[in-house]
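Need tokens for this chain, all 242 residues.
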Amino acid sequence: MGSGKYGALTGVITRMQMLDNINSNLANANTTGYKKGVSVFEAKFSEALATRGKQATNFTTVSGEAIDFSQGQLNQSGNPMHLAINGEGFFRVQQQNGEFVYARRGNFDRNVNGEMVTSAGFQLLDNGDSPIKLPLKEFTILNDGSIISDNQRVGSIPLYNFEDTNLLKRGNDGVFVAPADAVVSQSTKPSMLQGFLEGSNVNVMQETARMVNTMRVFESAQKALTAYDNMDSKLAELGGIQ
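Here are the structure tokens for all 242 residues:
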């Protein structure tokens, strides 16, 4: 396959991958705490083929997805179980299998044991990685995560920061999974709002504009690929003439 044809083919494939990314972002534009994905491009140059008899091939590929952790809009819900992180940080929660994962979604609820859990039933953890059990009486959660009931501090909700958030991967039910070598520390200045939820950080207008531009490039690459196919057909016909 010629380098031009290969470049056009990779152009078509990468734009299809970008469209998948855009569609995912748009589908989650109203999802609480969703963080949009950004396609990561990688340029490749096949030096191994750069010999006197062969020509090197330049092409691009989508090597993965980076997660944009920028702040989403804070929306008041009025539910005392809801928490929105204002700024950096993540809640630490524990899945049913015991694994620690991290979340930005703060639409918590109370389970039958009085513990704060995510919509998927994951337990929200305190400073000692124990489930947070709420008092039966009315309670208030302060900006620093302190849980107050009857004018007494009965618990605390910590937030965690990562030295490199690029290491985080998406998990199930809106959580993020950190590798074993990720450097994580407890936030010294946590900031959260009770009765609020953080919305998605997807900008629908920007994503729509990206979709239109990507579709145009996709169509151009598709036309180029068709042109190369036609050229190959013509060359084959000429080669068959004796």
